Amino acid sequence: MKYKNIQTTVLIILRLILGYHFLFEGIDKLFSVNWSSAGFLLQTNWLLSDFFHTLANDPTLLRLVDALNIWGQILIGLGLIIGLFSTIAAWSGAFLLFIYYFAIPPFIESFLFIDKNLIELFAFIIIAIFPTSHILGVDRIVKKIRSAKNG
Amino acid sequence: MAENENKPKDENKISRRDIIKGFSTVPILGVFAYDYWKKKTLEKVKNKAVQLNLGLDNEAPKIITNNDKGIGEVVKVGIIGVGGRGTALLKAAGFLEKGEYEDYVKQAKNGDQGAKRRLETYQNQSVLNIQVIGICDVFDLRAEKGIDIVSNGIQPNGESANLKNVKRYLRYQELLADPEIDAVIIATPDFHHAHMTIDAVRAGKHVYCEKAMTLTEDELHKVYAEVKKSGVVFQLGHQNSKNETFKKAKEIVDKNIIGKVTLIETTTNRNSRPGAWIRHLDGDGNPKPGSPETIDWGQWLGHTPKVPFSIERYYGWARFFDYDTGLAGQLFSHEIDALNQIMGFGIPKSVVSSGGIYFYKDIPRDMPDTFNSVLEFPDREFTMLYSATLANSRSRGRVFMGHDASMEVGGSLKLIANGDSTQYKDKIKNGIIDPSKPFYTYPESNIVDIDGITSPTEKYYAERGLIDTNVGGKNLDITHLHVKEWIDVIRNGGETGCNIEKAFDDTVSVLMVHKSYVENRKVEWDPVKRRII
Q1: Are B456 and A40 in contact (CB under 8 A)?
Q2: Cβ contact (<8 Å) for B11 and A141?
């Protein structure tokens, strides 16, 4: 896919912004001794909320969910910033945001069905289907190495 | 052929250009690291610096509790009055109705955080090693429930009280005559407190008396004299003294951190019929239980004017001045308790109260629903305002206004510098203190300051008040600590937090506030004659 320069620039900036946000969220949770996803899980109020409540009430499962969240966010953030496996990172980010949105959708408490999570979710989808890491990012080198091996 | 073979090789070769473009975004991680470090570390260092200069920390103390078996000899207790407050006192003493305990456990298992917190708070209580062997209540239903709680109730360690032969006394005098009973809890309507305390002290029983202590000045002097000349341990139910936040507030005032305090505002903000002591109907609008057959009405009325049985009066006695000192005795008493321990002011020089019945006009009441009181402390050079409404629940807090900062004290505490402060002038100018935000909170807030994905969690912790449990101390019911102190002093000697001297001072303030309203005039305290004039 060929982009114009301005399109490439904007897409890269969007990728970096999303990566920066996820990395911050992940790192901040990692260093907050008291953070746990329990509160969020217990607040879930739509389909599958019973399942989320079960996760929150089982200490082992909760630790797993916490770790997946923290490291998921950190790895997605790193992937987008340095441009390594960016497409997988972007789809994973979109998936995580879909879970957050699905768990506590805004329309339960208000008429609006759009919230920040949904907007960010679509920003991730854009990054996933308009990749830029092969232009500016480690994926550029990864791609070369792979081609060399296959060639 | 050779050309064709070479072409893809050249394309797959990693050029310098590829390296530069491939790693060009990596330095952003450095920017990120710096940004994160700046946000977190510098903020912490700055706050710590502010705190260090103040000589304050904001970690809640760890409370040591013992819930194995309890210590010392068993103290045998009797309770007079097992209504709402009496039941709460039994819980604070370590006896929770079995059904209620099981509900907590069940709801907590189902993920109800409120129930989980209530259960943990109860389990954090010490086992006091007491037995409640005598119960007195004029209402059969309540007496029976009380007996069930102290016989089969669950203790904080999860064990059943397992006590047999708990006696029900129809008259409180008979309970006091029981030589087995060492100590009594008095949780009757306020107009019975004085004579029951006097009789209990004369019978040699230690007394935990609910507030308000007395309805009149004469009663107050009698109770004071009787307790003073006896050797019994007396505790007035002003449990606020056990709140760690108020201890921290005292430290802040003593260290002059908020500067000279010239005005204290304290408030009551309610907006419901039960909150206005209209309580004779249940949630469905039906009358609550109780009839002349099940309530000993003559004994309930005691020395007050004889009136026909009234379920409205039975559940809503606090509305009538025959039975209570209105908002002064019900809610101002808690305020004076909190403020007096922080400021140590004793008794005000003068009080002016005013108000009226402006909202709940459909049902008989003496107690105003809108009530304001101004207490002057000229020797200490400050004024205290008490403002109460029962028709609007906007939280107006409890604020100490110092020249340098305002201190808001409730379940937690925060200090907000005043823009015109002298003490903090330079710190405000240098941006170390922002007068639009608290520069000190207690206990330290653990809310993570990030938005987006984290916000529901943050909201959850803040709303449920789970923050204080994260600090390291345990959640504890302050009434439990107050009852525990009373039992500890009975066992080991010492002084109770709200002993008869403190109870006297606080009660004088309550009576002044009430008297000024009833007599519609300014009242003063004569410290020589020890009389309200």
Answers
A1: yes
A2: no
> What is B227-258 written as a DSSP string?
HHHS---EEES-GGGG-HHHHHHHHHHHTTTT
Q: Which domain holds residue A118?
A: 5-150
Q: Where are the alpha helices (DSSP H) in B110-186?
A: 113-123, 140-152, 172-176
A132 touching B, CB under 8 A? no
Q: Which ranges in chain B are annotated with CATH 3.30.360.10?
A: 244-476+501-532
> Which tokens hold the place of B156?
């904080």
Q: Name the percent of chain B lying above pLDDT 70.
A: 88
Give the fold, CATH level 3, of B75-241.
Rossmann fold (3.40.50)
Question: B39-58 pLDDT, tens per residue?
Answer: 877 766 666 666 656 777 76
- Number of domains chain A is built from: 1
Distance (Å, rounded) from C-alpha B485 to C-alpha B499? 11
Q: For B14, phi and psi rounded to 5 degrees?
A: -85, 115
Domain formed by B244-476+501-532, architecture: 2-Layer Sandwich (3.30)
Helix (H, G, I), strand (E, B) or coil at B100: helix
Q: Between chains, do A144 and B457 touch, taking CB under 8 Å as contact?
A: no
Is-above-0.80 flag for pTM? no
Residue of B nearest to A78 (CA): B29
Alpha-carbon gap, residue A56 to A61, rounded angstroms: 7
C-alpha B178/C-alpha B78 separation (Å) is: 9
Contact between residue B59 and residue B468 where contact means Cβ atoms under 8 Å apart: no
Rg (CA), chain A: 18
Put simply, the answer to whether B461 touches A39 (Cβ < 8 Å) is yes
Residue A121 touches partner B, C-beta closer than 8 Å: no
DSSP bridge partners of B295 = B139
pLDDT digits (tens, 9 = 90+) for B463-487: 222 222 233 457 788 899 899 999 9
